[in-house]
Amino acid sequence: MVRQDVGIVWRGHQRRWLGLIVALLPSLAAAQHLPGLGTDDPRVAINTGRPPWNSVVRLQIPGVAVCTAFMTSPTRALTAAHCLYSARLGHFAPAASIHVLSGYSDGAFSQHVLAQAYIVAPGYDPRAPDHTRGADAAMITLATPVPGGVGLELARTVPSEGTMLMLAGYSQDRAQRLQIDPKCRSLGIVADAGGQPLLRHSCAGTRGTSGGPLLMQSADGSWLVAGLQSGANPTQIGGVAVTSETLAALLKSQ
Question: Could you tell me if 203 and 240 are in contact, meaning their C-beta atoms sit under 8 angstroms apart?
Protein backbone atom coordinates (compact mmCIF):
# COMPACT_ATOMS: atom_id res chain seq x y z
CA MET A 1 0.00 0.00 0.00
CA VAL A 2 1.19 3.51 -0.74
CA ARG A 3 0.12 6.34 1.54
CA GLN A 4 0.68 9.97 0.64
CA ASP A 5 0.30 12.84 3.08
CA VAL A 6 1.56 16.38 2.65
CA GLY A 7 5.34 16.10 2.70
CA ILE A 8 5.38 12.43 3.77
CA VAL A 9 5.49 9.16 1.78
CA TRP A 10 4.71 5.72 3.28
CA ARG A 11 5.43 3.18 1.40
CA GLY A 12 -17.31 -15.39 -8.76
CA HIS A 13 -16.63 -16.48 -12.13
CA GLN A 14 -13.93 -14.77 -14.05
CA ARG A 15 -12.68 -14.85 -17.62
CA ARG A 16 -9.18 -13.73 -18.44
CA TRP A 17 -9.20 -10.45 -20.42
CA LEU A 18 -6.70 -11.04 -23.20
CA GLY A 19 -7.27 -7.83 -25.15
CA LEU A 20 -4.81 -4.98 -24.84
CA ILE A 21 -6.07 -2.30 -22.46
CA VAL A 22 -4.51 1.15 -22.49
CA ALA A 23 -4.31 3.55 -19.58
CA LEU A 24 -6.42 6.66 -19.93
CA LEU A 25 -4.05 9.45 -19.02
CA PRO A 26 -4.32 12.33 -21.52
CA SER A 27 -1.62 12.44 -24.15
CA LEU A 28 0.01 15.73 -25.10
CA ALA A 29 0.41 14.53 -28.68
CA ALA A 30 -2.47 14.65 -31.11
CA ALA A 31 -3.85 11.22 -31.96
CA GLN A 32 -5.41 9.92 -35.13
CA HIS A 33 -7.58 7.61 -33.06
CA LEU A 34 -8.44 7.78 -29.39
CA PRO A 35 -8.90 4.53 -27.44
CA GLY A 36 -12.30 3.61 -26.04
CA LEU A 37 -14.33 5.34 -28.77
CA GLY A 38 -16.22 3.78 -31.66
CA THR A 39 -17.33 5.13 -35.02
CA ASP A 40 -20.69 6.24 -33.57
CA ASP A 41 -20.13 8.55 -30.60
CA PRO A 42 -22.96 8.36 -28.01
CA ARG A 43 -21.43 10.86 -25.53
CA VAL A 44 -23.39 13.93 -24.46
CA ALA A 45 -22.50 16.89 -22.21
CA ILE A 46 -24.24 16.94 -18.83
CA ASN A 47 -25.15 19.58 -16.23
CA THR A 48 -22.61 19.29 -13.39
CA GLY A 49 -24.93 21.08 -10.97
CA ARG A 50 -27.40 18.21 -10.64
CA PRO A 51 -27.06 14.82 -8.94
CA PRO A 52 -25.48 12.42 -9.49
CA TRP A 53 -23.19 14.55 -11.69
CA ASN A 54 -22.41 17.09 -8.96
CA SER A 55 -20.38 14.31 -7.30
CA VAL A 56 -18.14 13.89 -10.38
CA VAL A 57 -15.08 16.15 -10.26
CA ARG A 58 -12.10 17.02 -12.43
CA LEU A 59 -8.69 16.05 -11.04
CA GLN A 60 -5.53 17.89 -12.10
CA ILE A 61 -1.87 17.42 -11.19
CA PRO A 62 0.32 19.98 -12.96
CA GLY A 63 2.80 18.28 -15.25
CA VAL A 64 1.40 14.82 -14.45
CA ALA A 65 -2.26 14.25 -15.30
CA VAL A 66 -5.77 15.50 -15.97
CA CYS A 67 -8.27 12.85 -14.93
CA THR A 68 -11.72 12.35 -13.43
CA ALA A 69 -12.68 11.49 -9.85
CA PHE A 70 -15.90 11.18 -7.88
CA MET A 71 -16.87 12.08 -4.35
CA THR A 72 -18.05 9.45 -1.86
CA SER A 73 -18.44 12.10 0.88
CA PRO A 74 -17.72 15.84 1.16
CA THR A 75 -14.11 15.04 2.17
CA ARG A 76 -13.29 11.91 0.18
CA ALA A 77 -12.93 11.12 -3.50
CA LEU A 78 -11.97 8.06 -5.51
CA THR A 79 -9.88 8.08 -8.69
CA ALA A 80 -7.60 5.80 -10.71
CA ALA A 81 -4.26 5.18 -9.02
CA HIS A 82 -2.37 5.54 -12.30
CA CYS A 83 -3.51 9.19 -12.46
CA LEU A 84 -1.40 9.93 -9.38
CA TYR A 85 1.80 8.38 -10.70
CA SER A 86 4.38 10.29 -12.69
CA ALA A 87 6.23 7.97 -15.06
CA ARG A 88 8.59 10.82 -15.89
CA LEU A 89 9.60 11.29 -12.24
CA GLY A 90 9.27 7.63 -11.29
CA HIS A 91 7.10 8.11 -8.20
CA PHE A 92 3.61 9.03 -7.01
CA ALA A 93 2.79 12.73 -6.85
CA PRO A 94 2.70 14.52 -3.48
CA ALA A 95 -0.81 14.90 -2.09
CA ALA A 96 -0.51 18.69 -2.01
CA SER A 97 -0.07 18.76 -5.82
CA ILE A 98 -3.51 17.22 -6.45
CA HIS A 99 -6.21 19.73 -7.41
CA VAL A 100 -9.89 18.76 -7.30
CA LEU A 101 -12.35 20.99 -9.19
CA SER A 102 -16.06 20.50 -8.57
CA GLY A 103 -18.69 21.74 -11.01
CA TYR A 104 -16.06 22.19 -13.72
CA SER A 105 -17.32 23.40 -17.11
CA ASP A 106 -15.60 25.51 -19.78
CA GLY A 107 -12.84 26.65 -17.44
CA ALA A 108 -15.16 27.67 -14.60
CA PHE A 109 -15.79 25.66 -11.43
CA SER A 110 -17.77 25.94 -8.22
CA GLN A 111 -14.95 24.96 -5.87
CA HIS A 112 -11.22 24.26 -5.95
CA VAL A 113 -9.86 21.96 -3.23
CA LEU A 114 -6.41 20.47 -2.62
CA ALA A 115 -5.79 16.94 -1.42
CA GLN A 116 -4.48 16.41 2.09
CA ALA A 117 -3.59 12.73 1.77
CA TYR A 118 -4.33 9.65 -0.32
CA ILE A 119 -4.08 5.88 -0.18
CA VAL A 120 -3.50 3.61 -3.19
CA ALA A 121 -5.33 0.27 -3.21
CA PRO A 122 -3.19 -2.64 -1.99
CA GLY A 123 -1.56 -4.57 -4.82
CA TYR A 124 -1.44 -1.81 -7.42
CA ASP A 125 1.96 -1.43 -9.10
CA PRO A 126 2.29 1.48 -11.58
CA ARG A 127 5.30 -0.26 -13.11
CA ALA A 128 3.14 -3.31 -13.94
CA PRO A 129 -0.27 -1.79 -14.70
CA ASP A 130 -1.62 -4.67 -16.82
CA HIS A 131 -0.95 -7.17 -14.04
CA THR A 132 -2.49 -4.99 -11.31
CA ARG A 133 -5.24 -3.06 -13.12
CA GLY A 134 -7.89 -4.63 -10.87
CA ALA A 135 -6.40 -2.56 -8.02
CA ASP A 136 -6.05 0.66 -10.04
CA ALA A 137 -7.80 2.87 -7.48
CA ALA A 138 -6.90 5.50 -4.91
CA MET A 139 -8.85 7.18 -2.10
CA ILE A 140 -8.17 10.90 -1.68
CA THR A 141 -8.82 12.84 1.52
CA LEU A 142 -9.43 16.52 0.80
CA ALA A 143 -7.98 19.38 2.83
CA THR A 144 -11.35 21.20 2.71
CA PRO A 145 -14.84 19.66 2.42
CA VAL A 146 -16.78 20.17 -0.80
CA PRO A 147 -20.08 21.76 0.27
CA GLY A 148 -23.51 20.51 -0.71
CA GLY A 149 -25.02 17.07 -0.97
CA VAL A 150 -22.19 15.40 -2.84
CA GLY A 151 -21.28 11.77 -2.46
CA LEU A 152 -22.01 8.65 -4.50
CA GLU A 153 -22.81 5.27 -2.95
CA LEU A 154 -21.12 2.08 -4.10
CA ALA A 155 -23.16 -0.81 -5.47
CA ARG A 156 -23.14 -3.86 -3.20
CA THR A 157 -23.41 -6.32 -6.08
CA VAL A 158 -21.57 -6.66 -9.36
CA PRO A 159 -23.84 -5.87 -12.33
CA SER A 160 -24.76 -8.92 -14.37
CA GLU A 161 -23.84 -9.06 -18.04
CA GLY A 162 -26.19 -6.83 -20.05
CA THR A 163 -27.01 -4.43 -17.18
CA MET A 164 -27.46 -0.83 -18.37
CA LEU A 165 -24.64 1.48 -17.25
CA MET A 166 -23.53 5.11 -17.59
CA LEU A 167 -19.95 6.38 -17.67
CA ALA A 168 -19.07 9.96 -16.74
CA GLY A 169 -15.74 11.70 -17.30
CA TYR A 170 -13.69 14.55 -18.75
CA SER A 171 -12.51 13.02 -22.04
CA GLN A 172 -9.33 14.33 -23.67
CA ASP A 173 -11.15 15.35 -26.84
CA ARG A 174 -13.93 17.12 -24.90
CA ALA A 175 -12.03 18.09 -21.79
CA GLN A 176 -13.94 21.28 -20.98
CA ARG A 177 -17.28 19.65 -20.21
CA LEU A 178 -18.33 16.56 -18.33
CA GLN A 179 -19.46 13.94 -20.85
CA ILE A 180 -21.52 10.81 -20.27
CA ASP A 181 -22.35 7.73 -22.28
CA PRO A 182 -25.93 7.15 -21.07
CA LYS A 183 -26.73 3.85 -22.78
CA CYS A 184 -23.87 1.40 -22.45
CA ARG A 185 -23.85 -2.03 -20.80
CA SER A 186 -21.91 -4.39 -18.60
CA LEU A 187 -20.05 -7.07 -20.53
CA GLY A 188 -19.34 -9.16 -17.44
CA ILE A 189 -16.42 -9.79 -15.13
CA VAL A 190 -12.96 -10.50 -16.54
CA ALA A 191 -9.52 -10.68 -14.93
CA ASP A 192 -6.40 -8.61 -15.32
CA ALA A 193 -3.08 -10.28 -16.15
CA GLY A 194 -2.53 -10.88 -12.43
CA GLY A 195 -5.91 -12.53 -11.91
CA GLN A 196 -7.72 -9.66 -10.19
CA PRO A 197 -11.37 -9.00 -11.21
CA LEU A 198 -12.34 -6.16 -13.54
CA LEU A 199 -15.72 -5.04 -14.85
CA ARG A 200 -15.73 -4.98 -18.65
CA HIS A 201 -18.13 -2.51 -20.31
CA SER A 202 -19.22 -1.06 -23.65
CA CYS A 203 -19.16 2.60 -22.54
CA ALA A 204 -17.54 5.29 -24.70
CA GLY A 205 -14.76 7.05 -22.82
CA THR A 206 -11.18 7.88 -23.72
CA ARG A 207 -8.12 9.43 -22.08
CA GLY A 208 -9.06 11.75 -19.23
CA THR A 209 -11.99 9.58 -18.07
CA SER A 210 -9.69 7.54 -15.81
CA GLY A 211 -11.19 7.55 -12.33
CA GLY A 212 -14.69 8.35 -13.57
CA PRO A 213 -17.66 6.46 -12.12
CA LEU A 214 -19.44 3.69 -13.95
CA LEU A 215 -23.03 4.02 -12.71
CA MET A 216 -25.91 1.58 -12.52
CA GLN A 217 -29.49 2.36 -11.47
CA SER A 218 -30.99 0.63 -8.45
CA ALA A 219 -34.59 -0.53 -8.10
CA ASP A 220 -35.54 2.70 -6.32
CA GLY A 221 -34.12 4.85 -9.13
CA SER A 222 -30.94 5.97 -7.35
CA TRP A 223 -27.56 5.76 -9.06
CA LEU A 224 -24.86 3.52 -7.61
CA VAL A 225 -21.18 3.17 -8.52
CA ALA A 226 -20.62 -0.20 -10.18
CA GLY A 227 -16.99 0.52 -11.02
CA LEU A 228 -14.19 3.04 -11.55
CA GLN A 229 -12.88 3.62 -15.08
CA SER A 230 -9.33 2.30 -15.49
CA GLY A 231 -8.54 1.42 -19.11
CA ALA A 232 -9.90 1.46 -22.65
CA ASN A 233 -9.95 -0.77 -25.69
CA PRO A 234 -7.25 0.53 -28.05
CA THR A 235 -9.27 0.34 -31.28
CA GLN A 236 -12.96 0.18 -30.35
CA ILE A 237 -15.59 1.39 -27.92
CA GLY A 238 -15.49 0.22 -24.30
CA GLY A 239 -13.02 -0.60 -21.58
CA VAL A 240 -12.58 -1.97 -18.07
CA ALA A 241 -13.29 -0.67 -14.57
CA VAL A 242 -12.19 -1.49 -11.03
CA THR A 243 -15.10 -3.29 -9.34
CA SER A 244 -17.23 -1.77 -6.57
CA GLU A 245 -16.09 -4.58 -4.25
CA THR A 246 -12.47 -3.47 -4.60
CA LEU A 247 -13.49 0.15 -4.04
CA ALA A 248 -15.50 -0.76 -0.92
CA ALA A 249 -12.47 -2.55 0.55
CA LEU A 250 -10.34 0.54 -0.09
CA LEU A 251 -12.83 2.83 1.64
CA LYS A 252 -12.98 0.49 4.65
CA SER A 253 -9.20 0.60 5.01
CA GLN A 254 -9.49 4.03 6.69
Answer: no
Say how many domains are in the chain: 2
What would the pLDDT profile of 20-35 be if each residue is shown by its tens digit? 555 665 544 444 478 9
Q: Are 100 and 142 in contact, with CB atoms under 8 Å apart?
A: yes
CA 224 to chain centre: 14
Range of the domain at 96: 2-9+53-142
pTM over the 0.85 mark: yes
Residue 116's region, left for phi above 0, alpha for psi from -120 to 50, else beta, is alpha
Q: What is the 3-state secondary structure (H, E, C) of 139-180?
A: EEEECCCCCCCCCCEECCCCCCCCCEEEEEECCHHHCCCCEE
Domain closes at, from 103, 122, 142: 142
Percent of the chain scoring above 70 in pLDDT: 87
